[in-house]
Description:
Blueprint: E1 5-9, E2 23-31, E3 38-46, E4 52-61, E5 79-80, E6 84-86, E7 94-103, E8 113-121, H1 137-167, H2 178-182, H3 195-208, H4 215-226, E9 232-235, H5 244-254, E10 259-264, H6 272-285, E11 291-296
Helix pairs in contact: 3-4, 4-6
Amino acid sequence: MSETKYKRIEVTDNWSLDEKAAKKEQIVKIDSGIPGCIWYRLVLDADVPEDAQAEISYAITDEDVQDTSELQDKWSEPLVNPRDVMIIGPRGRYLQLRIVVSTNDKNDSVPPIKGIRLYYSPATYLKHLPAVYQEDPLSRDFLEEYLSIFETVLANLESRIEDVPRLFDVKETPNEFLSWLSTWVGTVKDENWSEGKWREFLSRAAELYKYRGTKEEINEIIKIYTGTHPLAIVERVLLKCTSPYLTKVLNLLFGGPYSFCVLLEPEQVKTEKDRKVVLRIIESEKPAHTCGGFAIIEQRIRLNWHTYLGKNTCLSEPKAEMILGKAILSLTSVLPSPPLSDKTFK
């Protein structure tokens, strides 16, 4: 593998002059950490229109120069609107860039530079050749610069190869690869999911699919999306009842014999988008022969509806003024009570 490395310099937000100035200048110092480092190539990432220009000069030293006035005789000739150019200069640990961007239109702002990529290496391909190629200093320098062209091209290919494992890492893969990575676990990225939640789901997909179609799996996926587990998942087939009236109520609440209902709190489904996502989770993960849905459990008692002791209701001590057969409660009535005590059920 090549020893060529690169550094990307972000300069967009570091201009020393006002944003609306017709000319901007900045000096950036890069430390390779390698004494006698060889700097190969400069790649500019910018959209420079015809009425503007970017000039970049560089100075290379092995010493950490703090006062840029000491570099007056070390600056290279300015490179005008460079895209991809070779760096021709001495070896050195530090490279300083002088970036000047200007526009001819005084009413227009200076175009931004997104970044600059610099390639460098502690040695060149020349070290792989016989020593005879290094005996003459003049030909050695020429050959070294000539070989650097091939080295930087190969470095691009090698950096892509080295980055391939990152594409399979759910936490590191770029956002545009998430849809492709989703197909590896037999699913399609839902655009209604946030990026963070979808990455968490993909990281656990292989584990969750081991018990696909079960309450446990649906429980966990809904937790990933909503942040909390459902209150319960009720399977109609497990609710045995001989009363025709109660059977009708159970069918109304939970569906037919092969149906189930996911009970959720209001905070878990706040928007129409949340409702669609939860329904899609239930539909895609349920067993093929079943029907599934969900219900929002509101904090109130309502006959023939989803009322569950300990979930959205609680028993409290009755008050003296509440007399069965005489007291009437409206739909929105609230019964305050002290905390439950052991005496309540004795």
